[in-house]
Inverse folding.
């Protein structure tokens, strides 16, 4: 098959370091990749004031996939790069599935005292293009004692149904075949009702999948006390943001949490990125763990149809994680990348 | 001093069992209480269709405080009792501070493998009368493929400032004097900006308090990986709902999590309740842990100015929790209440 046309956005801080290792592993997997680097992020913002110019966005549409490190820097006003670059990519490229596996690999230390690797093995299907992330809302009488600020969650049948359908298909493909809707239907009644009705309706097409419901507060608790409860979760953009960070915490930390911003209809390239941020505090110190990025690369390969290469990368990570256990010396970013790449190359 | 005029709403399921023990301990504390029971909850809803009739709400206004067990039953459409009873009480009685201590008592088992009691000792000050709980929003073209459902978070300078001010005062009264705002300012920009500006402004009046900020997703992760980070947290209604359930999970479970719905201006009675629900699955089996309710009673006493009695109840719970450790036999609801009451009585 022809080369993968890959857009690479290393971004800021440790994003640059971890993406280097991700590309190294991709290369080791023997899949032919043609990478094009994009210098989006804090530096470009400071140099030109640009975050994601339209011509760049248009160019990005032509790629097979995007690999992103992390964006954000304390020198940029908070939210600017998040909204005008990261979220803009997710929304404009219609990444309506934000796929976040939460899996405890053998050998990985979890803060939970009593769970075993098999106890934590779920996939969160987070909606990626609407909800409270829509940017709707406003402010009146700003700066006065009469100020009022609203923030509106926008949920459409179109947007909810497509992500729910994806989640059911994902659940149907797994061993446990269980799908849990996480929401807050008892309080967010308008949005919650649309989500619940949609799940009920699509469930009829998937009789082999057991469906469940859990309020987001209870789910957050169960992530800590009974993570075994969950197989596939479908949830809204904001709840997904929160619970996947709890997921990262229980499954060994943010250094291992991978994600895919997926456009299942393939009308635009999907984007793969570690869940962690740019971590300016440790940037340039070769301390960042590139594993989350490497696992994101495995998701990228799987998305593009290279199932065997994807499995090989994931297995290499799994083996590396077992070997880390009890190791005396922490490896540098590059060393972890080298070791995993060597395993992948076989 | 004169008797405490206490309205008691046992509610449904285990609410009834735990409130009995709460009253027992209140009695043992030697504070004179004049309780009046209200049969609000599922039974009354089924019998009369009423959740919280206006005359009852008016009567409740005349009490010094309210003790609530839990409301909710599978026989009632989801959300009805939550919204038309529980949330109506919080909103109508202007409980703008939802106070939720997250404290790991010695002897209590936490799912976190490596934390010690001193590591988890925080108070979450959750806003209680606005935000996404306002009930604002709506639905268009319901049931069609063109359906759109919105859910609006309403935040006012008035509402945010009063809870932020309360949180600063609370932080100033504690040893660490640290206040963390938890929000999602990088995405929920309108509401987040109001919250952040308010914290910045009120901070000037409390130079002795160190202020910090944490996105809700990161905070949720830190509850699991570094709970030591937090002393007092101030946050919006929905984020507070979620993180206090994580708090309950890390501090020994929902059986120990107390809360106060506080009206600090005392224009209406405050209401104290365990964070847990009515747990229909174990109702009537004498299995419910009344400790959360008893700790809520301690908060009630403190709110009404009985600081010494409050401290005695909390100490009795602390001692009981140490004794539970390593006990072979689980006690029934009533036995736990008896034991704690005996300690309180001295
Ligand atoms: C950086 C931020 C906008 C983003 C989000 O909220 O989605 C991040 O937290 C994530 O989870 O990818
Ligand atoms: C029952 C529900 C409406 C309530 C809430 O969301 O506030 C509960 O979860 C709580 O935390 O007290």
């Amino acid at each position: 098959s022809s080369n993968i046309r890959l857009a690479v956005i290393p971004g800021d801080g440790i994003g640059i370091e971890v993406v280097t290792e991700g590309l190294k592993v991709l290369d080791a997997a023997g899949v032919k990749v043609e990478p094009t680097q994009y210098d989006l992020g804090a530096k470009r913002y400071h140099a030109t004031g640009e975050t994601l110019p339209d011509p760049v966005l248009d160019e990005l549409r032509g790629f097979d996939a995007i690999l992103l490190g992390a964006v954000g820097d304390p020198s940029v006003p908070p939210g600017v790069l998040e909204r005008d670059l990261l979220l803009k990519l997710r929304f404009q490229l219609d990444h309506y599935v934000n796929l976040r596996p939460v899996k405890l690999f053998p050998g990985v230390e979890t803060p939970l005292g009593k769970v075993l690797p098999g106890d934590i093995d779920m996939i969160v299907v987070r909606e990626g293009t609407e909800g409270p992330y829509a940017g709707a809302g406003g402010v009146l009488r700003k700066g006065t004692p009469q100020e009022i600020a609203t923030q509106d969650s926008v949920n459409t049948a179109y947007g909810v149904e497509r992500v729910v359908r994806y989640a059911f298909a994902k659940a149907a493909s797994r061993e446990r075949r269980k799908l849990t809707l996480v929401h807050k239907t008892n309080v967010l009644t308008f949005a919650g009702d649309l989500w619940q009705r949609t799940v009920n309706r699509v469930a009829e097409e998937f009789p082999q999948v057991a469906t469940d419901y859990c309020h987001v507060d209870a789910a957050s608790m169960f992530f800590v006390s009974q993570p075994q409860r969950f197989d596939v979760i479908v949830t809204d953009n904001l709840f997904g943001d929160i619970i996947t960070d709890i997921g990262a915490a229980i499954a060994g930390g943010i250094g291992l949490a991978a994600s895919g911003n997926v456009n299942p209809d393939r009308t635009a390239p999907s984007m793969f990125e570690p869940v962690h941020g740019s971590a300016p505090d440790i940037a340039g110190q070769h301390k960042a763990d590139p594993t989350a990025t490497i696992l994101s690369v495995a998701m990228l390969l799987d998305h593009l149809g290279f199932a065997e290469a994807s499995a090989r990368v994931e297995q290499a990570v799994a083996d590396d994680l077992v070997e880390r256990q009890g190791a005396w010396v922490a490896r540098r970013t590059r060393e972890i990348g080298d070791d995993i790449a060597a395993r992948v190359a076989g």
Notes: Chain B touches chain A through 68 residues (CB under 8 Å).
